[in-house]
Amino acid sequence: MPKVEVALNAYYRYLSGRTYTPFQRFGSSAINWPVSAGRQPFLEPRGSRRLESESFLDLRVEKIFTLGEAGGRLSVYADFQNVFNQGTVLLRNSRWPNVAIAGYDDPIAFDAPQRLTEPRRFVLGGRWSF
User: Fold this and answer.
1) What is the pLDDT of residue 32?
2) Phi/psi of residue 39, each to 5°?
3) How many domains does the chain have?
4) Angle, vertex CA 46, rays to CA 40 and CA 47, nearest 5
5) Among 4, 26, 93, 123, which has the minimal tally of Cβ within 10 Å of its Cβ?
């Protein structure tokens, strides 16, 4: 809106669910294969499982102030990220039957969520142009 020098921006993104494939890891004594990749066979065809689709909306409201005759500008903005607060799973454990992590007592089960989208966020900021 040029008259009041306010900007409103929206960014929407949609991604179809990413694929993943279950695998099982074996030691050298179980499978005689010279490279470690051969000891991690896929248990299903590659890309046989799919995560949920991702749908996000981010908004920005910005007010611009003109400073003096030199044309300097000061703007204040507010970002609203993940407006609908989507809690989408971005990564699942694809190792069968589970994976152990150093420092944790319980192993992470197969197909358990490992990473989620960040919750709704609000960012307030400013910018000075000269």
Assistant:
1) 73
2) -95, 10
3) 1
4) 125
5) 4
Nearest CA to 124 out of 63, 73, 66 is that of 63
For residue 1, being part of any structural domain is answered with: no
Euclidean distance between CA atoms 15 and 52, whole angstroms: 9
Q: How are strands ordered across the β-sheet holding 54-67?
A: 6-15, 54-67, 72-81, 121-129
Token pair 């949609």 is at which residue?
14
Side chain identity at 115, as an amino acid letter?
Answer: R
Please check whether residue 27 lies inside any domain of the structure.
Answer: yes
C-alpha span between 128 and 66 (Å, rounded): 10
| Domain coverage including residue 57 | 6-129
Q: Which pair of structure tokens corresponds to residue 7?
A: 């900007």
Q: What is the pLDDT of residues 54-66, one digit of tens each?
A: 999 999 999 998 8
Residue at 14 is within a domain? yes
Residue given tokens 């000075």 in the structure block:
128
Q: pTM to 2 decimals?
A: 0.72
For residue 69, being part of any structural domain is answered with yes
